[in-house]
Amino acid sequence: MICLLQRAKYGKVEVDGACIGEIQQGLVVLVGFEPHDNSEKLEKMAHKLLNYRVFADDDGKMNLNVQQINGGVLLVPQFTLAANTKSGLRPSFSSSAAPAQATLWFDEFIDVVKHKYPQVQTGEFGADMQVSLCNDGPVTFWLQN
């Protein structure tokens, strides 16, 4: 499982011109799945994501997590994160989870994260999404388990 976490001033996902998910300050997280992922990995990633300290404390140090600042979380499915780009000039998606399985994992991941922290918005698996955000910093981390 791969999450590309971005600290954001705001984030929004649109499908067919309609906003389907939007947050103010918080995390915009692109989420990709690999064939060997499982429910245990989803739980661990949810914990890490919600507790990862990327927001500044009163001293300007990244010591606060999204929950401590009462921020939003925008989860956006992105199968291309798991692409194999080691050779050639075209990505291979053989290292990505099959769409049917990845859809189930994304839905489960949403449930796990929302159970731990309800301020969650999402994109739509398989949709042609337009994602916009203001990356704050910029601060971006690649989380993988």
Automatic annotation (TrEMBL):
Its main location: cytoplasm. One of its GO terms (molecular function) is D-aminoacyl-tRNA deacylase activity. It is found in: Cytoplasm. Keywords: Cytoplasm, Hydrolase, RNA-binding, tRNA-binding. It is an enzyme of class 3 (hydrolase). A Gly-cisPro motif from one monomer fits into the active site of the other monomer to allow specific chiral rejection of L-amino acids. Belongs to the DTD family. This is D-aminoacyl-tRNA deacylase. It comes from Thiomicrorhabdus marina. The gene is dtd.
